[in-house]
Design brief:
The protein has 291 residues and is of the alpha+beta class. It is 27% helix and 23% strand. Among the domains are: 110 residues, Ku70, Chain: A, Domain 2 (Beta Barrel); 70 residues, no CATH class. The strands form two sheets. The chain has an eight-stranded mixed sheet with strand order 5-1-2-7-10-9-8-6, covered by helices on one side. It has a two-stranded antiparallel sheet with strand order 3-4. A hairpin with a 2-residue loop joins strand 8 and strand 9. Helix 4 runs parallel beside helix 6. The longest helix has 14 residues.
Length: 291
């Protein structure tokens, strides 16, 4: 098993048990670029230097807080690692909330949570089942990655795995105020027929959510370009979209779109095979609805 990203205790009042946190995501990109000199074709390397342009070894680099212009107090990384705050080793769940109360914009990064060992499994399982049946998320603070995060502890939406999920949440002050960006958005009167057509278009394109169908086309294009250069082949041409009929207004666009989807609707094909034609919500929204 991979090395845990964080390990410590989950505590609820007088109940505590050991857990391990593992990142639930990983970077899958296989295209990596180096910086090279256009003139020589040689790789460009970066060196740590001081303001006096003297090379500095990695082991001699510490952190510095600038308390006045050009004046720093030095902080050794070990001093930060040994910072004495309870959340370094204990996730104290002080509050439980309905999943629907957490705005999806607050979610930052997911983690898998497993019991530390077999001796912790019973307490882990009891708390897990209680969270599942109450459809609640436990909130507590956890120190990792050089800062303290709010972590929401909950059970996977499909409840198919024996572990729990942890979601690092953003702080409210990290979210920009929407009013600043939506202030100039007009709210025109909506025509009932155009609304019905838009809903019909959404209905025809609704299908069960399948994350495996989403692929990184950008990386595929990069790979094709790199391989073409390696083999001295012509650059792959951009695929041109078929020209579409001119549309005069929104109503015409909606009517034509619904008409096109009648001819080839993935939702209708799925329905013929006995599959649901209702769009499954993303994981966060599913949890919100279930709450």
């Amino acid at each position: 098993m991979a090395r845990p990203y964080w390990s410590g205790q989950i505590q609820i009042s007088l109940v505590s048990f050991g857990v391990k946190l593992f990142p639930a995501t990983e970077a899958k990109s296989e295209i990596h670029f180096h910086q090279i000199s256009r003139k020589t074709g040689e790789r460009v390397r970066h060196q740590n230097v001081s303001d006096g342009e003297e090379p500095v070894e990695k082991g001699d680099i510490v952190k510095g807080y600038e308390y006045s212009k050009g004046e720093y107090v030095q902080i050794d990384p070990k001093e930060i690692a040994n910072l004495r705050i309870p959340s370094r080793k204990t996730l104290d769940l002080q509050q439980f909330v309905n999943l629907s109360e957490i705005d999806p914009a607050m979610y930052e990064k997911p983690y898998f949570i497993a019991p530390e060992d077999d001796s912790q499994a019973e307490a882990f399982a009891v708390v897990r089942k209680a969270l599942a049946e109450t459809r609640k998320a436990g909130l507590g603070k956890i120190a990792m990655s050089g800062r303290e995060h709010v972590l929401a502890i909950t059970v996977p939406p499909d409840d198919s795995q024996p572990g729990m999920m942890g979601y690092a949440l953003r702080y409210a002050e990290e979210l920009r105020k929407p009013a600043e960006y939506f202030a100039d958005v007009k709210t025109p009167k909506i025509n009932d027929e155009s609304l019905d057509l838009a809903k019909e278009l959404i209905k025809r394109r609704s299908a069960k959510f399948d994350p495996d169908k989403s692929k990184d086309e950008y990386e595929a294009a990069l790979r094709a370009m790199v391989e073409a250069k390696m083999k001295n082949l012509p650059m792959p041409a951009e695929q041109k979209r078929a020209p579409k009929a001119k549309v005069i207004n929104l109503m015409d666009a909606l009517r034509q779109s619904v008409g096109e989807d009648k001819k080839k609707s993935p939702a209708r094909s799925a329905h013929k095979k006995g599959k649901s034609n209702v769009t499954e919500m993303p994981s966060h929204d599913r949890r919100r609805k279930s709450a």
